[in-house]
Specification:
Layout lengths: L8 H28 L8 E2 L1 H8 L3 H13 L3 E4 L3 E4 L4 H25 L2 H16 L6 H19 L2 H21 L7 H16 L3 H23 L3 H10 L9 H7 L1
Length: about 260
């Protein structure tokens, strides 16, 4: 019987590093899950020691996880004050929608060029489930389906750098949308119809149409949010213009809808 190979100091250190990184990743995912599920509310202070104890890990992976979550835009680290779940204002969310619209448009164009038959069926399956809950008007059931739809589109785009930037933007926006999703339940049928049109454009390989539909979908989602909150979009755009920022570009389809 052969004895197990002896690990030298360098090999042992390398394995410890891998274990540590894996634990930090798992810790990051769990904290992120708690934030997105609302178990850790926006603005709440995070205690590293308490998190480490509750997850049964040491403080080292928690520190690594917090660093990654800070880079992902989900928490903010304030010197001499502590770590807080990031709060996103309506004005910030409004600007993030503009960035997401541009990224979603690119995702739509690339997905139409690169998607495979299995992924098209998966998207259609999600849309069918969206339609099934239309009558129930349960935003808490619709939300994960919406996330699944856009994740499938992102996978079909097959562009890793795009995925990295997109996920950060979505994380930041979801911090706000999670607090307001229950107020926009009446728009679920409209959103479902938009998703169905996007799938058909992608399935047809119509990159230009898929790009336009996804861009419009995000911008119109932003407008629906403003209507639900009874906060005029024009007021925020005027405020942004006074500060020297440009309001969101509107496609011809969006302009027609707004008039």
């Amino acid at each position: 019987m052969k004895s197990a190979p002896h690990l030298n100091g360098n090999s042992s250190a390398a394995i410890d590093t891998v274990r540590g990184n894996s634990l930090a990743t798992l810790t990051q995912r769990e904290i992120e899950r708690m934030i997105m599920a609302g178990e850790l509310s926006a603005g709440s202070r995070l205690n590293s020691a308490e998190i480490a104890e509750s997850l049964g890990v040491s403080r080292a992976p928690v520190r690594e996880a917090i660093r990654a979550l800070d880079e992902a835009g989900l928490v903010r680290v304030e010197k001499n004050r502590g770590i807080f779940v990031r709060e996103v204002t309506l004005e910030e969310a409004d600007a993030i929608y503009e960035v997401r619209a541009a990224l979603e448009g690119l995702i739509g164009r690339l997905a139409a060029q690169r998607i495979v038959a299995k992924e098209i069926e998966q998207l259609r399956g999600v849309v069918r489930r969206m339609a099934a809950i239309d009558h129930e008007r349960k935003p808490e059931a619709y939300y994960p389906l919406n996330v699944a739809f856009h994740d499938l589109m992102l996978t079909a785009a097959r562009n890793r750098p795009l995925a990295i930037h997109y996920r950060r933007v979505v994380n930041e926006l979801d911090l706000y949308r999670r607090e307001t999703i229950s107020r926009i339940h009446e728009h679920i049928p409209i959103s479902t119809k938009e998703h169905r049109a996007i799938v058909e454009a992608v399935a047809a390989g119509d990159a230009q149409r898929a790009e336009r539909l996804l861009y419009d979908h995000v911008i119109q989602s932003r407008e629906r949010l403003h209507k639900a909150l009874r906060t005029p979009l024009a007021a925020l755009e005027s405020k942004a213009a006074r500060r020297g920022a440009q309001p969101a570009a509107r496609t011809p389809a969006t302009r027609r809808k707004a008039t």
